[in-house]
Specification:
Elements lengths: L1 H26 L22 H16 L4 H24 L7 H26 L1 H6 L17 H33 L2 H4 L2 H6 L26 H46 L16 H56 L3 H40 L8 H14 L6 E2 L3 E2 L2 H24 L1
Antiparallel strand pairs: 1-2
Helix pairs in contact: 3-4, 3-9, 4-9, 4-10, 6-9, 6-11, 9-10, 9-11, 10-11, 10-12, 10-13, 11-12, 11-13
Family: Belongs to the insect chemoreceptor superfamily. Heteromeric odorant receptor channel (TC 1.A.69) family.
GO cellular component, one term: plasma membrane
Main location: membrane
């Protein structure tokens, strides 16, 4: 008992020290705003919508004071009261209800999705200050190496990336929102009126509720049925808000890094000797070579800054991606398996939706990771394409060092070992296929 109390005291002191350091770090920024409209270059942050305004306001409050806004605190408490209890009830039901493989896998699918949502909240709320530091990546003045004569071309590169980012994030959030909203329509697809209208059978499908998990008590009677329906509807709404917000943040940060790498690569690729020598000189003099070397040093420093931000992003989201991709794979396997084994059309639609939700989210993260790796590796080729042969030896040595660093690209990682890219997506597809084959053989054998 004494050791437990000592452990609690140390844990409490550690949390207080961490919170104090976070508050000091935040307040040391000099009261700068977290992210104003003028700080970004064309990113559609949605600052005009009420929901996004509230979201950014709560983050700004934490950035300025080091304390959680009451809206953020209420959201965290509500998510734990609804989401965490939903997971506990869903997982515990497996031990109280007699189930076969199909019913058991379907029962744990939604609690796993709920655990994903709760885990997203945990990872962000546990170290909010560290996450907010990454928002520096979004600012349009993140790079300082762009010379005046290259600003036009660099702005064009950045503008193309901004358009792609806005479309990518918008479509990803729309799909995420659509799939989760479609889950809320499941009671109507299982209803007697729907089945009779489309001649799919007689009588409503039982159980007929929003989600597929079971409960360790009798729920299919009034008024418990109505309470469960409202409870699950609130859980789905919280999942929509949480998944959309955290997915958008990660995608914006990754695509911002991609944009900065492309601008840096454009500057290096178009680094010419004619930018530094006068019109009357055929060869570069010492002054021109010194200016070219200083321009390269500015590019190297920005490259170091981008790599540091990329490493911080990969480190901060490593545990998040590890857990999220792992559970998404499980959800995808269960959804495909039950979709092929289900007898009712409504159940097939339900599991098809969950399969699309789980595996498409994995595909989005893998695609983003691949874009980040490609942009990082392209810097290596673009440095080589500058007119290094006309520069002095120390310029070539510095450029060589930059190429060595670019040869180790920035990458999102899961489990600190596996890169989150298209190659990983292919491996995940093979894993899902193998798991489905095993589950199907178990059904055929029984």
């Amino acid at each position: 008992m004494t050791w437990q109390m000592m452990g609690r005291d140390k844990g409490t002191e550690g949390r207080k020290h961490r919170d104090t350091m976070s508050a000091q770090t935040i307040q040391s920024d000099g009261g700068r705003a977290l992210l104003n409209r003028d700080d970004v270059k064309g990113l559609n942050m949605g600052l005009n919508t009420f929901g996004a305004k509230t979201f950014w306001h709560t983050l700004e409050h934490f950035h300025a004071t080091g304390k959680r806004h009451w809206v953020m605190a209420t959201y965290i408490v509500l998510l734990h009261l609804v989401g965490f209890t939903y997971c506990l009830l869903g997982f515990s039901a497996v031990f109280f209800i007699k189930m076969d493989i199909k019913r058991g896998t379907a029962a744990i699918m939604n609690p796993i999705c709920g655990l994903q949502t709760v885990f997203k909240c945990w990872t962000f709320s546990w170290s909010t200050a560290e996450y907010l530091k990454l928002f520096e990546i979004l600012k349009k003045d993140f790079l300082t190496c762009v010379p005046p004569q290259k600003e036009g071309g660099a702005n064009d590169v950045l503008a193309k990336n901004v358009v792609a980012t806005n479309e990518f994030v918008k479509n990803a959030m729309r799909w995420n929102f659509l799939t989760l909203c479609m889950v809320s329509t499941m009671p109507y697809l299982r209803s007697q009126a729907f089945r009779e209208f489309f001649r799919l059978g007689e009588g409503a499908i039982v159980p007929n509720k929003i989600c597929e998990n079971e409960y360790p008590f009798e729920w299919n009677s009034t008024p418990i049925y109505e309470i469960i329906w409202i409870y699950e509807q609130i859980a789905v709404i919280l999942a929509i808000v949480t998944s959309s917000a955290y997915q958008a943040i990660l995608l914006f940060l990754v695509m911002a890094l991609v944009g900065h790498l492309r601008v840096l690569g454009y500057v290096m690729e178009n680094l010419r000797a004619s930018d530094f020598r006068g019109e009357t000189y055929q060869l570069m003099d010492k002054s021109a070579k010194a200016n070219a070397y200083q321009q390269l040093i500015r590019c190297i420093r920005d490259h170091q800054k981008i790599n540091a931000a990329g490493d911080a992003l990969a480190e901060r989201y490593n545990f998040f991606l590890t857990f999220h991709l792992g559970t998404a794979i499980i959800v995808g396997i269960i959804a495909i398996f039950n979709c092929t084994a289900a007898d009712e059309l409504a159940d097939k639609i339900k599991f098809a939706i969950m399969c699309g939700y789980g595996l498409l989210e994995v595909a989005i993260y893998c695609y983003c990771g691949q874009l980040l790796e490609n942009a990082s590796e392209d810097v290596l080729r673009q440095v080589y394409q500058c007119e290094w042969e006309e520069m002095e030896p120390k310029f070539r040595k510095a450029a060589q060092l930059m190429m060595v660093r670019a040869n180790n690209p920035i990458a999102l990682r899961a489990g600190r070992l596996y890169r989150v890219n298209l190659e990983t997506l292919g491996a995940i597809q093979q894993l899902v296929y193998s798991a489905l084959t095993m589950l199907s053989s178990m059904i055929d054998g029984s």
